[in-house]
Automatic annotation (TrEMBL):
Domain of life where this protein originates: Eukaryota
Spans annotated as Disordered: 1-38, 50-98
Record-linked InterPro entries: Glyco_hydro_beta-prop_sf (IPR023296), Rhodanese-like_dom (IPR001763)
SUPFAM superfamilies linked: Arabinanase/levansucrase/invertase (SSF75005)
Protein name per its UniProtKB record: Rhodanese domain-containing protein
Residues spanning the membrane: none
Species annotation: Ambrosia artemisiifolia
Chain ranges of the Rhodanese domain: 196-242
Biased composition annotated in UniProt, kind: Polar residues: 16-33, 64-98
Amino acid sequence: MATTTPNLNPLLFPSTPRSTHPTSIPSKRSNLFNIHPKHPHKNPIFIANCSTNPTVSDDKDNVIQDQDSTFSSNPHQDFQNPQKPTSDQPNPSTNSFVSRGLVLDLGQQGCWDSIEVGSPLVKRFLSDEEERWYMWYSGRPGGNMGPGSIGLAVSSNGIHWERGKGVVQSNSDVGLVMKCSNDWWAFDTNGVMPGEVLVMSSSKIRASNAVYWLYYTGFSNEKIEVLDNSLEFRLENPERCGGKGEFGGICRSLIGLAMSQDGRHWARIEGEHHSGALIDLGLEGEWDSMFISSPQVVFHSNGDLRMYYHSFDLEKGQFAIGMARSRDGMRWKKLGKIMGGGRVGDFDEYGVMDPCVVRNKKDGGYFMVYEGVDVDGRRSIGLAQSSDGLKDWHRVEGRPILKPAQETGCWDDGRVGSPYLVHMEGEKDEWRLYYQGIGQNGRVGIGMAVSEGNDVKSFRRWTGFHL
């Protein structure tokens, strides 16, 4: 099943290597969440003959030399076709005005996602027979301070989603797919949140099965003391959106990698950091020394993967977005901050966060949708453009492309953020914007807005199919 997601240039590794002496995935962590006890993997994931040494030049453009790269883009790779899961979807409010745009509500009481859902990561797959959508998202059960987990929902149209109440049991099931780590030394002991999924491959080996690479944020139990917090709102990480209770403060967070053959059963991959993370924090005084969060990885070309992430710049007192580059998707070289806060009075004056970057196939440039924070902590979704996807980013029109609902009582009248952009290639050539919405009453959900034609600068909340 081929993907049409614009920033997902699939790369695949085979599930069974052709080499007689295969090299297994390096340093698979022992705390792998056992979510498939009755059906253990009979066919482990392997990587065959893949270079893990990034080669980034020292020139001002940080051009990656890729003569030895074994990576290749394979947009026509077939995906396995899971059976239709059996799970129930809570019905949103019958008032269409109040629930306008809502596509995934909270899970039922007692479910793994009953108090919070967010961080939607949406992929669309097409074949000659059908259309299939996957959404990985974060969720939390009852208990305001409970750690977050990652789950999977599926859909045939990207609007009506089938979800699961608990842990997945088979490769066609939906529900909870990844919990936080149980290892005391790990960076992700206090919750996990999805960032981006790529499908990787080697150009030297034919593959029949997809191998998903999940880049995610892992939160630790280490709290950060903010010495001079002059912000007009509570600074919190991870942000607790649902329920009532004490604020959690700032937790250290880093970026991790996990792999899967079915998008449901994940094996953590050991990074170079002593905690298992891929990238370390910045040094004291650097803009990303507090935490690193929300990785979004784009395949630019062979041997050139780009990661966008956010942190909080203590010196500037604002959220900011930076980037790193890699040849192999495992070892990363930071390039620094690429976007900070907007102008005084703008919707993103106090910073930008949660970037989602996609490539514009028409001109080869890049779009970035992001969450902007104003002086009161109010969140909206903004848009920036770049010709090369590196440091040359410009805000589009200086205004948000999606604001919290203006009508009081709507499910997302408090704030909107965690955007994810999907290009609907075809007759309509439109864009879909998935996002987390929060009401003024604290209720949380995942919504969807649709562009006016192919104009990425103008979105309206989904209200139903137009026949």
